[in-house]
Structure formats: C-alpha cells, structure tokens
Amino acid sequence: MDSSIYGISWSRDSSLVVSVARGGNLAFWRTRENKKIAEMMVLDYWTMCCSLSPSGRLIATGGTRNDVYVDIVKEGTYKQIITPTFRNMSGHRGYLSSCEFIDEIQLVTSSGDGYCILWDVEMGRAVHYFKKHKSDCMSVSVNPIDRNLFISGSCDMKVCLWDLRMKKCVNSFKGHHSHDINAVKFFPNGLGFVTGSEDLTCKLFDLRVERPLTTFSNDELNEPISSVCFSKSGRILFASHGPSIIAWDTLTGKMNCEIAKLNIKCSCLEVSPDGSALAAGSWDHFLRIFA
C-alpha cells in the first residue's frame, strides 16, 4: 500500500480482503497466497471506509467527498473492476465514516453530519435518513442475525439501535462513556454489541437487559480505541488501542494478550467470516493478517 489504511472488508468466503487507503487506493488481497491480485483508484482521495456486498460483486467506498461510490467487480473474479463508477450517490453533508451492505441492494452508511442513510444501490438513491445523534456518527454495524436492525455510534457518546422496518430508533444507550464512541460492532448472536471509545474503554452491552455487562480497560493501555470486532464464537474481543492490538476475554472481562504492537495507529480490524483470521489495517501502510 502507498499510504495509511483506513478501511478493510472481507469476502464472504474468507479468501479475500479489500483495503482502502489515503490517496484513493483500493486493493484486493488474496490472503492465503499473500499477494495483491487487483488494484484501482477510487474517486475520493481521502477514502475512509469500504464494504463488499455479500456476493462480492459490488464494492462500496466513501470518505471526505461525502458521496458513496459503488463499483462492480466483474463476475466476482476480482481481476477487473468495471469503470466508470456504477453508482455515485449523494445525500450526506459530511464525510463518510463507515458503510456496510445489508444485502445486494441495500447499504447503510454513517457520516460526520450525524446522519445514517439507508441506500438503494440498484436505484442509486437514498431511501431513508436516520437522525438522532447530535454529533459526528462514527460507525455502523448491521445485526448478523436480523438484518433489519443496525446500530450506530457517535461522538455524542451515544449508541442508537435502528429498525429498518419502522425506520426509526427503537432504543438508545447513553451515559456509559465519557468521550466519543469511535467504533461499534454487533455480537455474533445478534443479542449484544460492543463499543470502543476515546475514553480508553470498550463496553459489552446486552440488548435484553439494555445496559453494559462488561467494561474492558487496562491502566497500561492509554490510547483511544479506534476499531473493535469479535471472534466467530464471540469469546474473544479484538480492539485496537492506538498501535496495540488487544485480545480480551468476553467471559471474564480480562485482557487475554497483546497480539501485536505496531509503530503507529492500527485503524481498522475485522475477523474473517469463517473465523480463521484477523485482518488489521494501520497508518504504517501495512495490511496484516493474523491466523
């Protein structure tokens, strides 16, 4: 990679990971072969997020130009990206911080304008604007079991649970963090979620009791959390504390180990769908795979 990596996304078969970096560089990596198999430049120089569709046919990206760009991956082979951009969708008035495909047609995004937007990729337009946050919305996560639900985390220190069927916030969680929430991720069974914050802590919430069950913190970790994700079973929580990648035990709440300590910030983490590997993107230009 030529510059700092800001976003990563796995293919559903866990054979490939996509990364986006400053400069608009979008790269496709075959992880088992440890090589880059395709590369392209996207329209947004400061691309901050990416998401592969379930089939791997579409790739969505976005950043400081505020628009959502969707490109087609020809026949799912990743050997050729069809240009020009398949969809260029406008609607946000701030940078795109996060995006995730719900299915092949629907995409949800979060933005510095405080909104989340549901998009119809096939039609190339916004379907609904979700507004409840009072500051930058930093992260979204779609429920892995019930795809009608998603959560968003914001600099207003609040998490909102949204229902696509009702098109509104059905629950909110506030007063648990003292600083910005940078990252959110659903638990694998869809019954809970984790937050990562500028206050140096992660918190595991249970939707059934509507409160946090566990706080993950360590006095020796003095960097804000920028990304969080779970192992396939949910037993391990992975969190990036500045340059450190930490594994936490979700059952005991204790730190399991430090997987790696980089020379610079680890910006994004994601576990492969089959649970066999952890991908980590960082500001030192490297994409790392831990297995």
UniProtKB/TrEMBL annotation:
<dbReference type="InterPro" id="IPR036322">
    <property type="entry name" value="WD40_repeat_dom_sf"/>
</dbReference>
<keyword id="KW-0677">Repeat</keyword>
<dbReference type="GO" id="GO:0007165">
    <property type="term" value="P:signal transduction"/>
</dbReference>
<feature type="repeat" description="WD">
    <location>
        <begin position="174"/>
        <end position="215"/>
    </location>
</feature>
<dbReference type="Pfam" id="PF25391">
    <property type="entry name" value="WD40_Gbeta"/>
</dbReference>
<protein>
    <submittedName>
        <fullName>Predicted protein</fullName>
    </submittedName>
</protein>
<keyword id="KW-0853">WD repeat</keyword>
<dbReference type="InterPro" id="IPR001680">
    <property type="entry name" value="WD40_rpt"/>
</dbReference>
<feature type="repeat" description="WD">
    <location>
        <begin position="1"/>
        <end position="39"/>
    </location>
</feature>
<feature type="repeat" description="WD">
    <location>
        <begin position="130"/>
        <end position="172"/>
    </location>
</feature>
<feature type="repeat" description="WD">
    <location>
        <begin position="89"/>
        <end position="129"/>
    </location>
</feature>
<dbReference type="InterPro" id="IPR016346">
    <property type="entry name" value="G-protein_beta_1-5"/>
</dbReference>
<dbReference type="InterPro" id="IPR019775">
    <property type="entry name" value="WD40_repeat_CS"/>
</dbReference>
<dbReference type="InterPro" id="IPR015943">
    <property type="entry name" value="WD40/YVTN_repeat-like_dom_sf"/>
</dbReference>
